[in-house]
Specification:
- The protein folds into two domains: about 230 residues, Aldolase class I (TIM Barrel, Alpha-Beta Barrel), CATH 3.20.20.70; about 70 residues, Up-down Bundle (Four Helix Bundle (Hemerythrin (Met), subunit A)).
- The chain contains 17 helices and ten strands.
- The mean pLDDT is about 95.
- Strands 1, 2, 3, 4, 5, 7, 9 and 10 form an eight-stranded parallel β-sheet that branches. The chain has a two-stranded parallel ribbon with strand order 6-8.
- α3 packs parallel to α5, α5 packs parallel to α6 and α6 packs across α8.
- The chain is α/β, with parallel strands linked by helices.
- β3, α3 and β4 form a beta-alpha-beta unit.
- It is globular, with a radius of gyration of 20 Å.
Length: about 325
């Protein structure tokens, strides 16, 4: 979700769900430690619960980055062992780390020792390239559990580091949630969440009913946020007091966020690009997307006009 789940996106998603755990886009340890890009840790207090997602392969550097995340207020620091992009491979981190479970264990141990107040978690694949997932996945889980990790998210596909694009790696390798779920018996102390191919609350509920401890939804929640996040508190978290999010109400609640962003010199599109799917499945959704896309440099008046049109359409 690099370049997607920035702070403005997360503030929008938090208007839809009070309880869903949100993740930052992946931040490299090199950018924080060697590039001094501390601004990548910036976030608004209302974004919590929020986890920092790190990428890297050097234990000492990742430990320092984890400490920076802890000091910035993140209660969870997640190590990405699942991203298959060329950009990530060239830095020898992400999914390629599935090949070196001992190194991943060393990284997690170093992070936990240096950032003791933050929970260290891992997101991984079933394996990469010609690895046998039935061997690669438990090898990784064994290593991270020995390092003190108690929560893992498993994207239930292999990643092919050569020959498939990142998009293809999200769609072509077959899903094997059965293998991921079997790890519950092999590692009963681990909290294991399912990821991959889950594009609705119904699918999420089915995964929880099968025995997974949690569910992670990425791009589907981004593209249809109301359909997934808008009812998550009631359906997934059992919050009887939580009504499903009202898209117009969410749109209005975002107005101060947009105003603040514009006041800091930002462009309207910096916020609204994350909100194109707010009315997905509703009458006028296409007009909403068009109105926001045609006014990337507009101000609050352009946003208010687009939201006003949607309010009228839904009230008709």
């Amino acid at each position: 979700m690099m370049d997607w789940t920035d702070s403005l996106c997360r503030q929008f998603h938090r208007k839809l769900s009070r309880q869903a755990l949100l993740y930052t886009e992946m931040v490299t340890s090199a950018a924080l430690v060697r590039g001094n890009a501390r601004h990548l840790l910036d976030h608004a207090p209302e974004e919590h619960p929020l986890a920092l997602q790190l990428g890297g392969s050097h234990p000492a550097e990742l430990a320092q980055a984890a400490r920076m995340g802890q000091d910035a207020g993140f209660a969870e620091v997640n190590l990405n062992v699942g991203c298959p992009s060329d950009r990530v491979q060239s830095g020898c981190f992400g999914a390629v780390l599935m090949k070196t479970p001992a190194l991943v264990g060393d990284i997690c141990a170093a992070m936990a020792a240096t950032a003791p107040e933050a929970e260290i978690t891992v997101k991984c694949r079933l394996g990469v390239d010609d690895q046998d997932p039935a061997q690669a996945l438990p090898a990784l889980l064994d290593a991270v559990q020995a390092a003190g990790v108690r929560r893992v998210i498993v994207h239930a596909r292999k990643a092919w580091l050569q020959g498939l694009s990142p998009k293809d790696n999200r769609e072509i390798p077959p899903l094997d949630h059965d293998l991921a779920l079997s790890m519950k018996a092999a590692f009963p102390k681990l909290h294991i969440s399912a990821n991959g191919g889950i594009d609705s609350l119904e699918a999420a509920e089915a995964m929880l009913e099968r025995g997974f401890d949690g569910v992670m939804i990425g791009r589907a929640a981004y593209h249809a946020p109301l359909r997934i996040l808008g009812a998550a508190d009631r359906r997934l978290f059992g919050d009887a007091s939580a009504g499903d999010a009202d898209p117009v109400g969410v749109g209005r609640a975002m107005r101060p966020v947009i105003a603040g962003h514009l006041a800091r010199g930002g462009r309207l599109v910096g916020v609204t690009r994350h909100m194109l799917g707010l009315f997905a499945g509703q009458p006028g959704a296409r007009a909403w997307r068009r109105a926001l896309s045609e006014a990337p440099n507009g101000g609050l008046d352009a946003y208010d006009a687009a939201l006003g049109q949607m309010t009228e359409r839904l009230a008709a």
